[in-house]
Amino acid sequence: MDTERTTAKQNSSLEITQSLEEDPLVDGPLIPPDVLESAIRRQFQSLPTSWLAILLTCIHAAFFGLSVALAVFCSIKENVVNCKQYIHDFETQTIIAIAKVALWLLIAVFERYVQHHHSRTRNRGYLQFYRSTRNLKRLPFFIHSAGNAAFLLILSARLSFKSNEQSLMYMYLLLGVLVLELCFSVPCLLFYTVKVMQFNTEKPAPDINQEEHSNAYSGTRSLINTEIGFRDSSSVEEVVEKQADLIEYLKQHNTLLSKRLLSLTSQQIRD
């Protein structure tokens, strides 16, 4: 009697195991990998900052040209009567300083606008491009901020040591500051524009996808370019920052992958 009960229990457990192994995990066909990959593949989004950098370069060049023309016509050649028709009771240095502050505000807005779009690019997985342009996009703002400080020192010295004989010297110093700003700021903007235009033209895949693609062709899982871990020739802060950016991107990518997987699974179940 006991032998029959034991045999029956074994047969029932075997039937349950076989039924579980034969039943599919989901009702319906499995999701093809190509469908899921195409569903989560993000369309490349170009950076709309190159045209703004070109516009800012033109504004800076126009500001420099008008400032030099105003300084030469009203201060160096001392055409006071003709200048009064246009600048009224304002001094030439005051007008240049006000225009310079307006230009600095435009550059500050440009820096914030560019930072916003570059942060979105980093979240989309373009970590290498973000790090390569991180300091470049800030340089014009720092250059003009230093120029404002130099302007303030020169104008303060002019107010402290009032002398008609030295007024022309202060104007030359102000023009020298403008020349230095033009020589350092415009190349940065042009170089940034070239890098952004190359990025938009190439339309590369995110960094992690490029590494997977290269590893698939090479047949090895080389970690030379990923810089995971500490090396004597690398900075700890840089390695930690790269890992943090990569982890943040992978978290967002996995979240999107889970949402698309659930959506496609529920859609196949309904069909």
TrEMBL record:
It is a multi-pass membrane protein. It comes from Acipenser oxyrinchus oxyrinchus. Belongs to the TMEM192 family. It is found in: Membrane. One of its GO terms (cellular component) is lysosomal membrane. Keywords: Membrane, Transmembrane, Transmembrane helix. The gene is tmem192. The keyword Transmembrane helix applies. PANTHER family: TRANSMEMBRANE PROTEIN 192. InterPro entries: TMEM192. This is Transmembrane protein 192. It holds the Pfam family TMEM192. The chain crosses the membrane at residues 51-73, 93-114, 139-157, 169-194.
